[in-house]
């Protein structure tokens, strides 16, 4: 009984993330792997995404503190996060990265 309630709550929460544009259809495809392959594979995919993105964001944060900021390097790091977010279905993060890349490119051109 409690397990079915929790599954329902999880399904509603994931649906709300889709409705808000935080996740996209790629995440749905990854979820289907859960039923086809071992669920651990999906968990590993998501864990790897978080570890990779955390590492890149840490590096990005380091570059932001430099007095002579290299916007092309910043754009490259943002592009890495964008690619990883696209592969996992993290739409909101992907869109934020696209905005950051555009701002970096524009600032680079203005220099």
UniProtKB/TrEMBL annotation:
It is found in: Cytoplasm, Cytosol; Nucleus. Keywords: Cytokinin signaling pathway, Two-component regulatory system. GO terms for cellular component: cytosol; nucleus. The keyword NAD does not apply. Its main location: cytoplasm. One of its GO terms (biological process) is cytokinin-activated signaling pathway. InterPro entries: AHP1-5/YPD1, HPT_dom_sf. GO terms for molecular function: histidine phosphotransfer kinase activity; protein histidine kinase binding. Histidine-containing phosphotransfer domain (HPt) contains an active histidine that mediates the phosphotransfer. Functions as a two-component phosphorelay mediators between cytokinin sensor histidine kinases and response regulators (B-type ARRs). Plays an important role in propagating cytokinin signal transduction. This is Histidine-containing phosphotransfer protein. It comes from Carpinus fangiana. The lineage of its organism: Eukaryota, Viridiplantae, Streptophyta, Embryophyta, Tracheophyta.
């Amino acid at each position: 009984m409690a397990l079915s309630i929790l599954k329902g709550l999880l399904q509603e929460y994931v649906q709300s993330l889709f409705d808000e544009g935080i996740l996209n259809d790629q995440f749905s495809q990854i979820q289907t792997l859960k039923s086809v392959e071992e669920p651990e594979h999906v968990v590993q995919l998501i864990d790897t995404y978080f570890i990779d993105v955390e590492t890149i964001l840490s590096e990005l944060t380091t570059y932001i503190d430099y007095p002579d900021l290299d916007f092309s390097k910043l754009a490259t790091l943002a592009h890495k996060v964008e690619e990883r977010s696209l592969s996992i279905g993290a739409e909101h993060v992907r869109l934020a990265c696209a905005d950051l890349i555009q701002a970096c490119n524009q600032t680079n051109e203005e220099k």
